[in-house]
Amino acid sequence: MKRKLTEEDLAAAKRLKSIWTSKRVALGLTQEKAADLLGFNTQGAVSHYLNGVTPLNTDTVIKFSMLLNVKPEDIKPELAEILSYVRKSPSPEPGEEISSLNVLTSQHRELIRLFDKMPESEKIHLLKQLDVKAKDYDKLLEELLELRKKSKN
């Protein structure tokens, strides 16, 4: 059974919708694209969050904030205290996994925009080419690391 939305939930949805409305065009977003980028099954999930049908949990607020390039507390101000604590925590050491969330840079968005313009057959071809190129770089990196090991010995 779905829980009833509180005034806080409705206010957060209203803030999210306002941010969405002001930024979606500049970011090249549709509800369908947002659903895909956010890992939701359907565009309807995005609509439900934007229209206050489904309450925003912390994970969803963070995902939307990253997608829309805003602070999570811009959507849900009650998260400010806990996020302040998290931000003051020590950063991971270089080489450590930083986050499981993907941050879309302007390059990522441009790549997606261009990719979406291509016919399906070209998308498949490009993905195969990129996969081969990435594997070549992985192999090259392995070879370089192996050479370093040998030169240190």
Strand content: under 5%
The succession of helices and strands, N to C, reads HHHHHHHH
What would you give as the CATH superfamily of the largest domain? lambda repressor-like DNA-binding domains
Shape: extended
Structural class assignment: mainly alpha
Question: Which spans have pLDDT < 50 for at least 5 consecutive residues?
Answer: none
Distance linking N and C termini: 64 Å
Fraction of residues in helix: 55-70%
The CATH architecture designation of the largest domain is: Orthogonal Bundle
Number of helices: 8
Number of strands: 0
- Please compute the radius of gyration using only Cα atoms: 20 Å
InterPro entries: Cro/C1-type_HTH (IPR001387), Lambda_DNA-bd_dom_sf (IPR010982)
Organism: Rouxiella aceris
Protein name: Helix-turn-helix domain-containing protein
Domain HTH cro/C1-type: 24-75
Description:
The longest helix is centred in the last third of the chain and has 33 residues, at 120-152. The chain has helices spanning 7-23, 31-38, 43-50, 58-68, 72-75, 80-88, 106-117, 120-152. Helix 2 (31-38) crosses helix 3. It is extended. It is built from eight helices and no strands. It has 153 residues and is mainly alpha-helical. It has two domains: 7-104, 434 Repressor (Amino-terminal Domain) (Orthogonal Bundle); 118-153. GO terms for molecular function: DNA binding. This is Helix-turn-helix domain-containing protein.
